[in-house]
Write a structure and sequence with these properties.
It is built from 13 helices and four strands. It is mainly alpha-helical and 353 residues long. The longest helix has 32 residues, at 45-76.
């Protein structure tokens, strides 16, 4: 009797889905969203335009973190919850190298800023890449054949460990960074300024995304990654070093987190020990929205989440405000899992629904 009672809500939901009610509810929510955006566009077009640009910029930074989630999930079907905290430590490393060791600040010359940020980027990528690969070797590889709950709990544990490291290095209060990038105005929309610092951050993310696509699609190592993601046993029979490929994937994902850590520090000029938890979950939602395991989908989902965050916090007509940003993001995660679990660009599978 208990089993039949527990299955009844599921059968009701499937009945609604089969009748086409659930998809229409999803379409209705999308229509309401576009109506809300349209009204805000008509009331405050200047604010809407600048928030649109800022949302794309922020979304590109989120995309670098979301790609790390998608890479690891695509090859191991593991949600690496420690990835957000690797991103946080990338911001800390950027602060340590760029500001504390090299002395970059608003008064630095253009030449010093260029070579200083280049060196900081290399250090952040190397640090986060090796850290993420070490986590895979120590924490995840011994549990590769264990039930899926074991590596998931381990990932959460690693997240807390890295967060404590960040607390030790950064302290409990947010740390401010100087405005290293030029802050002049690129253009204005309705009196709202879009600065060079945000443009540089957005443009810097594009070649990294293009390089990752080239690596996965065109290189031998990328073909090994795709083969391992499809079938590890068959890939091993074809001569692919599965352990080495997975280690390399974690290193690339960590390097992306290092790039994102630097760009986010330059974008927000504030970093905190708990930013990895919050922004990591936002990036994970982006990956799910676009289609977990799908690289273009992760970037698309991240841009959409960046736009939603900026519109929610910046629009004036019936916008919930910044206090509701996290609730809205996780509501989107729940709605995606209910209405379209494969995401916008993902493929529906027997396991994924």
């Amino acid at each position: 009797m208990a089993t039949e009672a527990s299955r009844q809500p599921v059968s009701w939901f499937r009945g609604f889905y089969a009748a086409g009610v659930v998809p229409w509810v999803g379409r209705g929510l999308v229509v309401l969203l576009f109506v809300w955006l349209g009204v805000n566009l008509s009331k405050t077009p200047g604010d809407f335009g600048i928030l649109l640009v800022e949302g794309v910029t922020l979304g590109l930074v989120y995309g670098l973190v979301a790609l790390g989630y998608s890479l690891v999930y695509g090859i191991l079907e593991l949600i690496n919850f420690a990835h957000g905290d690797v991103f946080m430590l990338g911001s800390w490393m950027s602060l340590y190298i760029g500001v504390q060791k090299l002395g970059l600040d608003a008064s630095s010359s253009g030449f010093k800023v260029v070579w200083g940020l280049a060196l900081t980027l290399v250090c952040a990528m190397a640090f986060c890449g090796l850290l993420n690969a070490s986590i895979e070797r120590v924490a995840y590889r011994p549990l590769r054949n264990a039930p899926r709950l074991a590596p998931l709990i381990t990932a959460i544990g690693m997240s807390f460990i890295l967060q404590d490291v960040g607390l030790k290095q950064l302290g409990s209060a947010p740390v401010s960074l100087p405005n290293i990038l030029p802050t002049g105005t690129v253009f204005t929309i309705g009196g709202n300024k879009y600065g060079w610092d945000h443009l540089i951050v957005g443009l810097s993310a594009l070649p990294v995304l293009a390089l990752l696509v080239w690596l996965v699609q065109r290189t031998r190592q990328g073909r090994g990654m795709r083969a391992t993601a499809q079938d590890q046993e068959a890939a091993a029979m074809m001569g692919i070093n599965v352990n080495g490929t997975i280690w390399f994937t974690f290193m690339i994902a960590g390097a992306l987190a290092g790039v994102a850590g630097l760009l986010y520090a330059l974008y927000s000029t504030n970093i905190a020990y708990d930013q990895g938890f919050t922004l990591g979950l936002i990036a994970f939602t982006s990956a799910v929205l676009g289609g977990i395991g799908n690289l273009p989908g992760a970037v698309l989902g991240a841009i959409l989440i960046g736009l939603i965050q900026q519109f929610n916090e910046g629009l004036s007509w019936h916008a919930p405000g910044s206090d509701w940003t996290q609730s809205i993001v996780f509501a989107i995660l729940i709605l995606i899992l209910v209405f379209r679990p494969e995401g916008l660009l993902g493929e529906r599978t027997p396991e994924g629904g």
